[in-house]
Amino acid sequence: MDTSYHQLKESGLAKVRAAIRAGQYQSHTAGLGQGFLQANLAIMPKAFALDFMRFCQRNPKPCPLSGVSDTGNPMMFTLGADIDIRTDVPAYNVYRDGSLIETVNDISDLWQDDLVVFALGCSFTFENAVQQAGIPLWHIDNNKTVPMFRSGIETVPAGPFSGKMVVSMRFVPEDRVAQVVEISRHYPLAHGAPVHWGDPAEIGIDNLESPDWGDAAPQVQGHVPVFWACGVTPQVAIEQAGLPLCITHTPGHMLITDVSEYAEVPNYQTDTHFKGE
Amino acid sequence: MDTSYHQLKESGLAKVRAAIRAGQYQSHTAGLGQGFLQANLAIMPKAFALDFMRFCQRNPKPCPLSGVSDTGNPMMFTLGADIDIRTDVPAYNVYRDGSLIETVNDISDLWQDDLVVFALGCSFTFENAVQQAGIPLWHIDNNKTVPMFRSGIETVPAGPFSGKMVVSMRFVPEDRVAQVVEISRHYPLAHGAPVHWGDPAEIGIDNLESPDWGDAAPQVQGHVPVFWACGVTPQVAIEQAGLPLCITHTPGHMLITDVSEYAEVPNYQTDTHFKGE
């Protein structure tokens, strides 16, 4: 039996994860498990893991690394007490040689002893903080997908991973831009401060009305386009790298962790507690 | 001819680096190249690099990763326009099988094609910010080394790397502690917010008068001991791991980068600039 989004939205994290693990919920995770950090996913053979980790370190705004598994271990033990990455994400995209070959809801059959899992922070955290400051976000209020663009900004390459930075765009009232920059800078695990605001052409974007992904947002008088580094960047880099096998989350269908959304470090057990000898 | 500390303290970054590269300056770097990020160093064979990178990701407060080289490439191209890690640090400690075997001023002869360089943020950045807020720091004002302690806090292990967290301690006036926590939290690449303040026994430290490294600081009425995660933590983890070869900076003798001390991301070319197609 399918569990509905509206049922789960009122539920605690344990119920949400149980429904996903059981395959009863296979849809997007926006607004679910409120208060907990959500993450993008990239799973690849160990042979590529060091280069991918370097790519994330060199491009921390599009690729904010929040968790890395041990090789071959599907349990994400820094992100939660019982997170099995093979079952605890609503939907996965499976790529072979750089091509999407299928979308599945469980990757137990695909698991290999040489796989390494990377969890990357997403924009939900800073969006919540911006909304709490009283600044409305069009795509959330209208149940749309944020518009995303392939910018002219080059990422710093590492091994086979490279490419242009993908950015997401939100219109912000001109007199609130400085505040939005300040707020989002405090969330380095959620893409940090914007990479640009104002004229899109300055970062190589021609037309705000035709995003490369997501829905076009209506221009409003007195609003400025503000651009953040986007988690689609590593997905594009991974596709271009043409790895023999790579598994990502299906866009919007994220891993929900046990880490507080506002945690300083991405560990569900804060690293500052001494439990006695 | 030796270049003196006092000469270099008034010099720009280019002169400082040239003196270090030429072997004319082989001493500590505190206060040199002001305004630029300094970094701890760990150089090891690629076979251990993925696990060490996981150790840093899992323990970001003691091990804030600010740069990682390509395998076998001694140029730290994200941290500066011309940083050669073989010559641009005043002094290096060379470990074989976990034991310190020598301290040298140039590692060109030791360089191997399988080496990976890790640069880790250090405390100088947040210390400058704390001082600028008008809060004095005893060890700096008295030209001492900050007291450091092996705490009871366990790091999160990764491969051969594990062990207790080393913390540094600074006494702070009781009514400024909240401010100091807030300030340092803004510098995740410089160890972030303190891991503890108040009773040392709560993090397994018996006696503030006998630090494991550095100089004991005098207790002052109305001051509270505040503990930050310390960059000695990865050094201890590396020693315990007993790698066949590992090269670190000699404590206090850091890499000075081209990255602004207050940069959001550790790249000397900000990643937000679009230079045109």
UniProtKB/TrEMBL annotation, chains A, B:
Pfam families to which the protein is assigned, alphabetical: D-Glu_cyclase (PF07286)
Entries under InterPro entries matching the protein: D-Glu_cyclase, Putative_hydro-lyase, UPF0317
EC number(s) from the headed UniProt entry: 4.2.1.-
GO molecular function, a single term: lyase activity
Keywords assigned by UniProt, alphabetized: Lyase
Gene3D superfamilies in the cross-refs: PSTPO5379-like, PSTPO5379-like domain
Coiled-coil intervals: none
UniProt-listed NCBIfam families: PRK05463.1
Alphabetical list of HAMAP family matching this protein: Hydro_lyase
Family affiliation: Belongs to the D-glutamate cyclase family.
Protein name: Putative hydro-lyase GO984_19930
Source organism of the structure: Parasedimentitalea huanghaiensis
